[in-house]
Amino acid sequence: MRPIVQISLDLTNIDEALDTARLAMRAGVDWLEAGTPLILAEGLHGVRALREAFPSTPIVADLKTMDGGYLEVEMMAKAGATHVVVMARAHEETIRCVVKAGADFGCKVMGDNMVCDDMVAGAKWLEDLGCDFVIHHIGYDERRGIAARGQRMPSPLDQLRQVVDAVKIPVQAVGGLSLEQAIECPKYGAPLVVLGAPLTIDADAFKTADGDLEASLRMICDAVHSQDVG
Ligand SMILES: O=C([C@H](O)CO)[C@H](O)[C@H](O)COP(=O)(O)O
Protein backbone atom coordinates (compact mmCIF):
# COMPACT_ATOMS: atom_id res chain seq x y z
CA MET A 1 0.00 0.00 0.00
CA ARG A 2 1.23 3.48 -0.83
CA PRO A 3 1.36 5.55 2.37
CA ILE A 4 -0.98 8.52 2.69
CA VAL A 5 0.00 12.02 3.77
CA GLN A 6 -2.53 14.00 5.80
CA ILE A 7 -2.06 17.60 6.86
CA SER A 8 -3.64 18.80 10.13
CA LEU A 9 -5.13 22.22 9.60
CA ASP A 10 -4.94 23.13 13.30
CA LEU A 11 -5.71 26.76 12.44
CA THR A 12 -8.35 29.18 13.60
CA ASN A 13 -9.81 30.68 10.44
CA ILE A 14 -11.12 29.49 7.09
CA ASP A 15 -8.98 31.77 4.91
CA GLU A 16 -5.75 30.54 6.41
CA ALA A 17 -6.96 26.93 6.29
CA LEU A 18 -7.81 27.29 2.59
CA ASP A 19 -4.46 28.94 1.77
CA THR A 20 -2.53 26.22 3.60
CA ALA A 21 -4.67 23.48 2.06
CA ARG A 22 -4.12 24.82 -1.50
CA LEU A 23 -0.41 24.85 -1.00
CA ALA A 24 -0.48 21.37 0.56
CA MET A 25 -2.46 19.93 -2.33
CA ARG A 26 -0.01 21.43 -4.84
CA ALA A 27 2.78 19.75 -2.90
CA GLY A 28 1.16 16.30 -3.11
CA VAL A 29 -0.66 15.93 0.24
CA ASP A 30 -3.45 13.32 -0.02
CA TRP A 31 -5.85 14.10 2.81
CA LEU A 32 -6.88 17.31 4.58
CA GLU A 33 -7.80 17.46 8.24
CA ALA A 34 -10.13 20.14 9.57
CA GLY A 35 -8.34 20.36 12.93
CA THR A 36 -10.12 20.76 16.25
CA PRO A 37 -9.19 24.49 16.52
CA LEU A 38 -10.59 25.15 13.03
CA ILE A 39 -13.88 23.42 13.83
CA LEU A 40 -14.13 25.29 17.15
CA ALA A 41 -13.46 28.64 15.48
CA GLU A 42 -15.51 28.22 12.33
CA GLY A 43 -17.86 25.34 13.09
CA LEU A 44 -18.76 23.04 10.22
CA HIS A 45 -18.47 26.03 7.86
CA GLY A 46 -14.76 25.19 7.98
CA VAL A 47 -15.43 21.67 6.70
CA ARG A 48 -17.89 22.99 4.09
CA ALA A 49 -15.35 25.52 2.81
CA LEU A 50 -12.72 22.81 2.40
CA ARG A 51 -15.21 20.54 0.64
CA GLU A 52 -16.22 23.31 -1.80
CA ALA A 53 -12.61 24.11 -2.61
CA PHE A 54 -11.51 20.46 -2.86
CA PRO A 55 -14.48 18.45 -4.14
CA SER A 56 -12.72 15.09 -4.35
CA THR A 57 -10.19 15.20 -1.51
CA PRO A 58 -10.73 13.09 1.63
CA ILE A 59 -11.43 15.39 4.59
CA VAL A 60 -10.99 14.30 8.20
CA ALA A 61 -13.16 16.29 10.62
CA ASP A 62 -11.26 16.10 13.94
CA LEU A 63 -14.13 16.95 16.27
CA LYS A 64 -13.06 14.25 18.78
CA THR A 65 -16.58 13.02 19.44
CA MET A 66 -17.28 12.08 23.09
CA ASP A 67 -21.10 11.98 23.10
CA GLY A 68 -24.06 12.47 20.81
CA GLY A 69 -22.16 10.45 18.25
CA TYR A 70 -24.87 9.80 15.69
CA LEU A 71 -25.87 13.44 15.20
CA GLU A 72 -22.28 14.68 15.17
CA VAL A 73 -21.37 12.26 12.39
CA GLU A 74 -24.51 13.08 10.43
CA MET A 75 -23.67 16.79 10.61
CA MET A 76 -20.01 16.32 9.71
CA ALA A 77 -20.83 14.02 6.80
CA LYS A 78 -23.43 16.45 5.45
CA ALA A 79 -20.82 19.22 5.68
CA GLY A 80 -18.49 17.16 3.49
CA ALA A 81 -16.33 15.12 5.86
CA THR A 82 -15.28 11.69 4.63
CA HIS A 83 -13.63 10.74 7.94
CA VAL A 84 -14.71 11.47 11.51
CA VAL A 85 -12.96 10.95 14.84
CA VAL A 86 -14.37 9.30 17.97
CA MET A 87 -12.50 8.98 21.23
CA ALA A 88 -11.78 5.57 22.79
CA ARG A 89 -12.54 7.14 26.18
CA ALA A 90 -16.11 7.86 25.06
CA HIS A 91 -18.82 5.46 26.19
CA GLU A 92 -19.05 2.22 24.21
CA GLU A 93 -22.54 3.26 23.05
CA THR A 94 -21.15 6.48 21.61
CA ILE A 95 -18.54 4.58 19.61
CA ARG A 96 -21.26 2.23 18.35
CA CYS A 97 -23.45 5.21 17.35
CA VAL A 98 -20.55 6.80 15.48
CA VAL A 99 -19.83 3.55 13.63
CA LYS A 100 -23.54 3.19 12.75
CA ALA A 101 -23.76 6.78 11.53
CA GLY A 102 -20.53 6.32 9.57
CA ALA A 103 -22.17 3.42 7.71
CA ASP A 104 -25.44 5.35 7.23
CA PHE A 105 -23.79 8.53 5.93
CA GLY A 106 -20.81 7.07 4.09
CA CYS A 107 -18.07 8.25 6.47
CA LYS A 108 -15.05 6.29 7.66
CA VAL A 109 -14.50 6.26 11.42
CA MET A 110 -11.14 6.97 13.00
CA GLY A 111 -10.91 5.89 16.64
CA ASP A 112 -8.50 7.93 18.78
CA ASN A 113 -6.82 6.18 21.74
CA MET A 114 -5.62 9.42 23.40
CA VAL A 115 -5.37 9.17 27.22
CA CYS A 116 -6.31 5.49 27.34
CA ASP A 117 -4.63 3.87 30.36
CA ASP A 118 -3.59 1.06 28.03
CA MET A 119 -3.19 2.55 24.56
CA VAL A 120 -2.66 -0.81 22.85
CA ALA A 121 -5.83 -2.25 24.41
CA GLY A 122 -7.61 1.03 23.52
CA ALA A 123 -6.68 0.58 19.86
CA LYS A 124 -7.94 -3.01 19.86
CA TRP A 125 -11.17 -1.91 21.55
CA LEU A 126 -11.76 0.66 18.79
CA GLU A 127 -11.19 -1.96 16.11
CA ASP A 128 -13.51 -4.46 17.84
CA LEU A 129 -16.26 -1.82 17.92
CA GLY A 130 -16.00 -1.31 14.16
CA CYS A 131 -13.73 1.68 13.65
CA ASP A 132 -11.96 1.80 10.27
CA PHE A 133 -8.71 3.41 11.48
CA VAL A 134 -6.81 3.91 14.73
CA ILE A 135 -5.28 7.23 15.68
CA HIS A 136 -2.52 6.48 18.17
CA HIS A 137 -2.31 9.87 19.84
CA ILE A 138 -0.32 11.52 22.62
CA GLY A 139 -2.28 14.68 23.40
CA TYR A 140 -1.10 18.26 23.16
CA ASP A 141 -1.60 19.18 26.83
CA GLU A 142 -0.12 15.92 28.09
CA ARG A 143 3.04 16.44 26.03
CA ARG A 144 3.48 20.08 26.95
CA GLY A 145 2.75 19.51 30.63
CA ILE A 146 5.29 16.73 30.90
CA ALA A 147 7.90 18.75 28.99
CA ALA A 148 7.28 21.77 31.25
CA ARG A 149 8.07 19.61 34.27
CA GLY A 150 11.38 18.70 32.66
CA GLN A 151 10.45 15.06 32.18
CA ARG A 152 10.86 12.97 29.07
CA MET A 153 7.96 13.63 26.75
CA PRO A 154 6.09 10.48 25.70
CA SER A 155 6.03 9.89 21.95
CA PRO A 156 3.48 8.01 19.87
CA LEU A 157 6.45 6.08 18.48
CA ASP A 158 7.06 4.48 21.92
CA GLN A 159 4.19 2.03 21.40
CA LEU A 160 3.48 2.41 17.71
CA ARG A 161 4.80 -1.02 16.77
CA GLN A 162 2.68 -2.69 19.48
CA VAL A 163 -0.44 -0.83 18.36
CA VAL A 164 0.17 -1.76 14.71
CA ASP A 165 0.67 -5.40 15.68
CA ALA A 166 -2.48 -5.46 17.84
CA VAL A 167 -4.91 -4.42 15.08
CA LYS A 168 -5.62 -5.19 11.44
CA ILE A 169 -6.93 -1.74 10.53
CA PRO A 170 -4.58 1.10 9.44
CA VAL A 171 -2.93 3.15 12.18
CA GLN A 172 -1.72 6.74 12.26
CA ALA A 173 0.60 8.16 14.92
CA VAL A 174 -0.06 11.72 16.11
CA GLY A 175 1.40 14.12 18.61
CA GLY A 176 4.75 15.80 18.82
CA LEU A 177 6.49 13.92 16.04
CA SER A 178 9.45 15.57 14.36
CA LEU A 179 9.43 15.67 10.61
CA GLU A 180 11.92 12.83 10.39
CA GLN A 181 9.82 10.74 12.78
CA ALA A 182 6.64 11.39 10.81
CA ILE A 183 8.34 10.27 7.59
CA GLU A 184 9.47 7.08 9.37
CA CYS A 185 5.92 6.03 10.37
CA PRO A 186 5.41 3.66 7.39
CA LYS A 187 8.49 1.74 8.56
CA TYR A 188 6.53 0.93 11.73
CA GLY A 189 3.68 -0.38 9.59
CA ALA A 190 1.60 2.80 9.99
CA PRO A 191 0.50 3.90 6.50
CA LEU A 192 -1.09 7.24 7.40
CA VAL A 193 1.43 10.01 7.99
CA VAL A 194 0.07 13.12 9.68
CA LEU A 195 1.88 16.42 9.36
CA GLY A 196 1.21 19.04 12.00
CA ALA A 197 3.44 21.10 14.25
CA PRO A 198 6.14 22.24 13.97
CA LEU A 199 6.48 21.97 10.18
CA THR A 200 3.09 23.17 9.07
CA ILE A 201 1.62 24.75 12.16
CA ASP A 202 3.13 26.96 14.85
CA ALA A 203 1.78 25.04 17.85
CA ASP A 204 1.97 28.06 20.18
CA ALA A 205 0.05 30.42 17.93
CA PHE A 206 -2.10 27.97 15.90
CA LYS A 207 -0.91 29.77 12.77
CA THR A 208 0.67 28.45 9.58
CA ALA A 209 4.41 28.00 10.13
CA ASP A 210 6.90 30.35 8.49
CA GLY A 211 9.22 29.29 5.65
CA ASP A 212 8.79 27.73 2.24
CA LEU A 213 6.09 25.34 3.32
CA GLU A 214 5.21 24.16 -0.18
CA ALA A 215 8.77 23.10 -0.98
CA SER A 216 9.14 21.35 2.39
CA LEU A 217 5.82 19.57 1.98
CA ARG A 218 6.74 18.40 -1.53
CA MET A 219 9.96 16.90 -0.19
CA ILE A 220 8.11 15.14 2.63
CA CYS A 221 5.36 13.82 0.35
CA ASP A 222 7.98 12.39 -2.01
CA ALA A 223 9.82 10.74 0.91
CA VAL A 224 6.61 9.22 2.27
CA HIS A 225 5.15 8.15 -1.08
CA SER A 226 8.35 6.39 -2.11
CA GLN A 227 7.85 3.89 0.75
CA ASP A 228 5.67 0.82 0.73
CA VAL A 229 3.60 -0.52 3.62
CA GLY A 230 2.94 -4.24 3.33
O1 LIG B 1 -5.51 16.67 17.82
C1 LIG B 1 -4.70 17.43 18.25
C2 LIG B 1 -4.70 17.92 19.65
O2 LIG B 1 -5.53 17.12 20.41
C3 LIG B 1 -5.15 19.39 19.76
O3 LIG B 1 -6.41 19.60 19.20
C4 LIG B 1 -3.60 17.86 17.39
O4 LIG B 1 -4.00 17.84 16.04
C5 LIG B 1 -2.46 16.90 17.53
O5 LIG B 1 -2.07 16.74 18.86
C6 LIG B 1 -1.34 17.43 16.63
O6 LIG B 1 -0.10 17.20 17.13
P1 LIG B 1 1.12 17.58 16.21
O7 LIG B 1 1.23 16.45 15.23
O8 LIG B 1 2.28 17.61 17.13
O9 LIG B 1 0.83 18.86 15.52
Concise structural overview:
With about 230 residues, this protein is α/β, with parallel strands linked by helices.
Feature tags:
binds ligand LJD2ZHX5, two-stranded antiparallel ribbon, alpha/beta, 3-hexulose-6-phosphate synthase, single chain
Structural features, described:
- By secondary structure, the chain is of the alpha/beta class.
- It has a single domain, classed as TIM Barrel (Alpha-Beta Barrel), CATH 3.20.20.
- Helices cover 44% and strands 19% of the residues.
- The chain has helices at 14-27, 36-42, 44-53, 69-79, 92-105, 119-128, 140-148, 160-166, 179-184, 213-225; strands spanning 4-9, 31-34, 59-65, 83-87, 108-112, 133-137, 171-174, 192-195, 201-202, 207-208.
- The protein has an eight-stranded parallel beta barrel with strand order 1-2-3-4-5-6-7-8, surrounded by eight helices.
- Strand 1, helix 1 and strand 2 form a beta-alpha-beta unit.
- Helix 1 (14-27) runs parallel beside helix 3 (44-53) and helix 2 (36-42) packs across helix 3.
- The longest helix is centred in the N-terminal third of the chain and has 14 residues, at 14-27.
- It is globular.
- The model has no long low-confidence stretch (mean pLDDT 94).
- It binds ligand LJD2ZHX5.
- The ligand O=C([C@H](O)CO)[C@H](O)[C@H](O)COP(=O)(O)O is lined by residues 8, 10, 35-36, 62, 139-140, 174-177, 194, 196-197, 201, 203.
- Keywords: Carbohydrate metabolism, Lyase.
- One of its GO terms (biological process) is L-ascorbic acid catabolic process.
